[in-house]
């Protein structure tokens, strides 16, 4: 099995104490911090943008995994890269010229990821899989934290894993939405190597311990 990475989603953090929450993640075993950007158009919710990313960047050296749930993300790639993104993931459904968008992300010095919604087949990644660094399988319909995990995502992870193996390249396989101890094991078994967890981490009594528990599933 590849090494497992936990990427807590700060969408579920206490925004009034973002510095404290970031410090808590710094002291945890989470290697990445997941940043959910929503525009109220691609998804029916608005979260935050550059100032929040910059504020988090100021207090961490962790890998910042930026998930853009926005229409035409190519308009803002440079600002996200300049604000501290290490990975920029865009939605296949939101990009009319996906290949160009991937190239732009890479030219900015970031890793490039593609996310697909629960209703989007994995097979649509076939023509871009060789160009990307990460596949993000959404296990909820994007827009909100705290939703119920859609179990079909496990089959999609398995399918994406096979597609990745055929490339012979090392590509992160991430799952996002409703991830918790009761489904993480099946996701890991199916081939996921990055787990995003928002409410499960931040609503727990001991978020650092919860992150460690998720990581131990891969032992
Ligand atoms: O992108 C999204 C939601 O659209 C996610 O990153 C959620 O923020 C994950 O939250 P939980 O489902 O883990 O609470």
TrEMBL record:
Alphabetized GO MF terms: D-ribulose-phosphate 3-epimerase activity
Pathway(s) served: Carbohydrate degradation
Cofactor(s) required for function per UniProt: Zn(2+); Mn(2+); Fe(2+); Co(2+)
Protein EC: 5.1.3.1
Enzyme class name: isomerase
Binding residue positions for substrate: 9, 67, 143-146, 176-178, 198-199
InterPro entries membership: Aldolase_TIM (IPR013785), Ribul_P_3_epim (IPR026019), Ribul_P_3_epim-like (IPR000056), RibuloseP-bd_barrel (IPR011060)
Source taxon at top rank: Bacteria
Family the entry assigns: Belongs to the ribulose-phosphate 3-epimerase family.
Stated name of the protein: Ribulose-phosphate 3-epimerase
Source lineage: Bacteria, Pseudomonadati, Bacteroidota, Cytophagia, Cytophagales
């Amino acid at each position: 099995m590849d090494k497992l990475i936990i990427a807590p989603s700060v969408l579920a953090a206490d925004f009034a104490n973002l510095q404290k929450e970031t410090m808590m993640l710094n002291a945890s075993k989470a290697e990445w911090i997941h940043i959910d950007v929503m525009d109220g158009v691609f998804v029916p919710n608005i979260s935050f943008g550059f100032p929040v990313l910059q504020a988090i960047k100021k207090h961490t050296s962790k890998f910042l995994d930026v998930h853009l749930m926005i229409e035409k993300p190519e308009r803002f790639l440079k600002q996200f890269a300049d604000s501290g993104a290490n990975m920029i993931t865009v939605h296949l459904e939101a990009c009319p010229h996906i290949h160009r968008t991937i190239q732009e992300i890479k030219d900015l010095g970031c890793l490039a990821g593609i996310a697909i919604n629960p209703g989007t087949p994995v097979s649509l990644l076939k023509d871009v899989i060789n160009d990307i660094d990460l596949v993000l399988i959404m296990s909820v319909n994007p827009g909100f934290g705290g939703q119920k995990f859609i179990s079909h995502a496990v089959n999609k992870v398995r399918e994406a894993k096979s597609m990745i193996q055929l490339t012979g390249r090392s590509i992160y396989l991430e799952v996002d939405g409703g991830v918790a101890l009761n489904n993480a094991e099946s996701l890991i078994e199916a081939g996921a190597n990055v787990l995003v967890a928002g409410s499960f981490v931040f609503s727990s009594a001991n978020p650092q311990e919860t992150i460690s528990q998720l990581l131990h599933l891969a032992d």
